[in-house]
Amino acid sequence: MSGDMVVPRLPQAGGTPYVWPGLQSGNGVLQAVLDGRSGVWWIGDGFYGNPSLPWGNGFNVNPGDTVHFSFTSSGSVWTCTLSSNGKSASTTLNITGNTMNRAIFAAELTNVPFNFGPIVYNNVKITATTAASGWCGKTAHLGTYPYTVASTSASGNTCTISKITQNSAS
Questions:
Q1: What is the pLDDT of residues 21-31, one digit of tens each?
Q2: Which residues contact 86 (CB under 8 A, 6 or more apart)?
């Protein structure tokens, strides 16, 4: 999976805002997390789940920056790459016993309202081992905030999404 995430404005201080694209298995999630707890945005990658692995690399970003993210695999070895405005970070993780079967675009918030959107993802490509025509364009949604998915297309095992927009809750 790859794409470009536009960094949203910072939420109010005092809570835990995590915004992330990721790939989920039954045992955890491989993710590129935009973390705003310290009052600035920091983006880093890692796997949260089983097996328990050390968190990966990252860097600070500003509202309005575009971060390119990619998750690629060779067997159970996953490489996570992030880049924005001349900064980059890459982490390689051996995630044994996991089959990634769901792409997630999350606003994971604790003690902070989702009033800092929109969160925008552009040029998203998701490649799987199955024909994209069977799943490209199908969505599931948790939460109460509105979202839009624009222009999906399937070609072989790849689904291309031109834009995903997650708007602040009303």
A1: 999 999 999 99
A2: none
Classify 94 as helix, strand or coil.
strand
- Note if the pTM is more than 0.85: yes
CA dist., res. 77 & res. 20, Å (int): 20
Token pair of 16 as six digits = 């835990």
Domain boundaries, the chain: 2-166
E-assigned strand segments in 50-115? 58-61, 66-74, 77-84, 87-94, 102-110
Say how far apart CA 49 and CA 14 lie, in whole Å: 26
Query: Residue 165 to residues 5, 123, 142, 153, 157: CA-CA distances in angstroms?
Result: 10, 12, 15, 17, 23
Per the listing, tokens 């796997």 go with 47
Provide the CATH number for the domain formed by 2-166 in this structure: 2.60.120
Nearest to 4 by CA among 52, 57, 65, 67: 67
* E-assigned strand segments in 85-131: 87-94, 102-110, 119-127
